[in-house]
Every structure is written in structure tokens, then in C-alpha cells.
Amino acid sequence: MRDLMLDRRRFLQGSGGLLLGTLLFTSGPIAMLAPSRTWALEMTSLDSATGSKLLLVIRRIFPHDTMEDAVYAFSVKALDEKAAQDPGIADLLKKGLADLDQRAGGDWSKLAEDKQVGILKEVQGEPFFALVRGMSVNSLYSNELAYKHFGYEGASFPKGGYIHRGFNDLKWLPNPPVDAGPAVPA
Q1: Burial of 183 from C-beta contacts in 10 A (0-12 / 13-18 / 19+)
Q2: CA distances from 118 to 59, 95, 96, 156 (A)
Q3: How far apart are CA 89 and CA 108, in angstroms?
Q4: Reduced to 3 states, what is the DSSP secondary structure of residue 110?
Q5: What is the DSSP string of 128-139?
Q6: What are the two backbone dihedrals, phi and then psi, of residue 23, each rounded to the nearest 5 degrees?
Q7: What is the pLDDT of residues 38-67, one digit of tens each?
Q8: Quick one: pLDDT band at residue 112, thresholds 50, 70, 90?
Q9: Do residues 68 and 145 touch, judged by C-beta distance below 8 A?
Q10: How far apart are the first and last CA of the chain?
Q11: What is the pTM of this model?
């Protein structure tokens, strides 16, 4: 029975790592969904430092200034799951991050944003970049928090189509003249 008891520190040392964060924006669609302002994401194969640096890489590849890190964390989780299935992926991610540090002449994550982006442009043809970009584009833009951030209401077919839900709600375009198209049925 004694072997089954673990304290929190030993549990965390045994797991891959945790990615921790705090919601920066206290209002907005994501903050309204969250039960608290802090969040944590357990990783099984990557450590916390690797997860944090990957989150920053993903943020630089897909920059959305007002999107919370919690949304980007889903992409880190997808990379962690892929690395758990294939140790070669974990190695590729760690080597790719080490390459960024080497190109930065130190800690890549401590550079100014424009310098970070410049180094990412240098490695955009590398397998590391292709893996991070490819996994992240799917996981980042296909989750509920991203939908809320962008105001995407979801697929149209289960709700009767767009003609009665969102078809005519373009607020960023001027109203067209009445004779520009056919009448929309009520």
C-alpha cells in the first residue's frame, strides 16, 4: 500500500510535464467559458520547458494577438501526443528547439518577437517547422475555444443553414443597394 501513495512532487516528476498559464483577458468569449483564470495541461512525453517553448513557436507561426495561450496549448498537446506515439517525434522537436537556440546565440524565447520570427523564417523548410506547423494548423483552428475567439458559430447544417443564421450579418461591409441581389425569404 505504501508504494501506491505518491506526493504531488513525485507525481509531477514522473509525468512528462505540465504546461501552465493564466488567462490574460478577463472578458471575452474564452474567459466566459473558463471556470477560472488559470489553466494547466498535462503532457506525457514532453517536459514543461519544451512545451512552453513550443507554445511560443506556435504563437509566432500563427499570430493572433488577442488569442489566449490556452487555445495554443491544444496544439502543444497534439504535438505531445504525437511524440508519445513516436519517440522520433519527441527527438525532432527537442532538436528543432535546440537549433532555434543555437541560431539565436542563446535562448530563442528571450529574443524580441521580430528576431524570433526571423529565425523561424530561416528554418521554415526544415522538418521541425513542417511538423509544428502541420500539427498546429489542425489542432489550433479546430477547437471550441478558437471558434469562440473568432466568433465562428459552427457548422450550418444542424441549425437550419446560414440563410436564417448569420447569412446577412456582415457588419464590416457597407450595405449593398437593394437591387444588388434577390430578396432573401423571411
Answers
A1: exposed
A2: 14, 18, 15, 39
A3: 20
A4: helix
A5: HHHHHHHHHHHH
A6: -70, 125
A7: 556 788 888 889 999 999 999 999 999 888
A8: very high
A9: yes
A10: 68
A11: 0.69
Q: Where is 100: in which H helix or E strand?
A: helix 87-104
Give whole-number Cα distances, 63 to 15, 35, 114, 137, in Å: 30, 25, 12, 12
Question: In the chain, how many H helices and how many E strands?
Answer: 8, 2
CA distance 98 to 19: 19
Is residue 100 within 8 A of residue 123, CB to CB? The reply is yes
**Nearest Cα to 29, choosing from 144, 168, 141?**
144
Q: What is the pLDDT of residue 105?
A: 97
Q: Which three cell numbers stand for residue 111?
A: 529574443
Q: How would residue 17 be classed by pLDDT, with cut points 50, 70 and 90?
A: low
For residue 169, what pLDDT is reported?
Answer: 64
Domain boundaries, the chain: 2-180
Q: At what angle do helices 87-104 and 69-85 cross, to 10 degrees?
A: 130
For residue 19, count other CB atoms closer than 10 A to its CB. 25
* Tens digits of residue pLDDT in 77-92: 999 999 999 999 999 9
